[in-house]
Amino acid sequence: MIEIDPTSPVPLYLQIADQMRRLIAMGALKPGDRLPAVRELAVTTRVNRNTAARAIQHLESEGVVRTRVGQGTVSYTHL
């Protein structure tokens, strides 16, 4: 479960990315596990779809997740 704090000075997309990274580090998300779709992530965290997409893109740029066309986004590595 990802919870964000709209009053925090940390941007929403970074809050989401940090919590997803933490889930991977704790082993709650293992390499190969599918992450929620951007739309689903936006709904569950109550953010704009662009914010959710930016969080996923941030994780992808760090090499934490991989997005594959038609297969979604998957956890890529242990932290």
Descriptive account of the structure:
46% of the residues lie in helices and 10% in strands. By secondary structure, the chain is mostly helical. The two termini are 19 Å apart. The relative contact order is 0.22.
Label the overall shape.
globular
Which structural class do the helices and strands define?
mainly alpha
| N-to-C span | 19 Å
Multimeric state of these chains?
Answer: single chain
* Order of helical and strand elements: HHHEE
The percent range for helix content is 40-55%
Low-pLDDT parts are none
Count of individual beta strands:
2
Radius of gyration, whole Å = 12 Å
| Number of helical elements | 3
Q: How do the strands line up in the largest sheet?
A: 1-2
Strand fraction: 5-15%
Characteristic terms for this protein:
79 residues, 3 helices, globular, mainly alpha, two-stranded antiparallel ribbon
Write the layout of secondary structure elements.
Blueprint: H1 12-26, H2 38-45, H3 49-61, E1 65-68, E2 72-75
Antiparallel strand pairs: 1-2
Question: What's the gist of this structure?
Answer:
The protein has helices at residues 12-26, 38-45, 49-61, and strands at 65-68, 72-75. It has 79 residues and is mainly α.
